[in-house]
Amino acid sequence: MNGALHSSPGVADIQLKRGPAGLGFNIVGGMDQQYVVNDNGIYVSKIKDDGAAALDGRLQEGDKILAINGMKLEDLTHRAAVELFRTAGEDVKLRVLKKSSCHTNGPTGTQPEHPSSFSLLGTLSVLAGAAAIISLIYMRQIRKH
């Protein structure tokens, strides 16, 4: 499975040097533990503070790792992928598909494109509370007259 991988939009090559704590990130996914529905890919689940990946800064949580040292990660079990990372050596080259809304669960940007249901419900709750207070004040004024 050491085929050539061609560059495409959103794909980045990242070279990391293994540190004392490894490469500095955790992965999820695989044929036996799909992270994204209908996708057997391997994804970055956590970037560890002060690890090789965090110090480099290019690898992000939610990125899909396509290959490690030229070995494609498609159709592997999670355990097989972990073993490839564990035995990859000191200098590790990753081919990564940067996260996008098509490849991750949940929002990917700093702000959602549309108001979230939480903020909408919060706004409605505040308005309902304000209306109740105004009604209470109005009713007290009517009773005084």
From TrEMBL:
Name the InterPro entries on file: PDZ (IPR001478), PDZ_sf (IPR036034), Synaptic_Scaffolding_LAP-MAGUK (IPR050614)
Write out the annotated subcellular location: Mitochondrion outer membrane
Q: What are the residue boundaries of the PDZ domain, all occurrences included?
A: 13-100
Supply the Pfam families for this chain.
PDZ
- What protein am I looking at? Synaptojanin-2-binding protein
Q: What's one GO BP annotation on this UniProt entry?
A: cell-cell adhesion
Q: Which CDD domains match?
A: PDZ_SYNJ2BP-like (cd06709)
Q: How does it assemble?
A: Binds (via the PDZ domain) to isoform 2A of SYNJ2 (via the unique motif in the C-terminus). Interacts (via C-terminus) with RALBP1. Interacts (via PDZ domain) with ACVR2A (via C-terminus) and ACVR2B (via C-terminus). Forms a ternary complex with ACVR2A and RALBP1. Interacts with MAPK12. Interacts with DLL1; enhances DLL1 protein stability, and promotes notch signaling in endothelial cells.
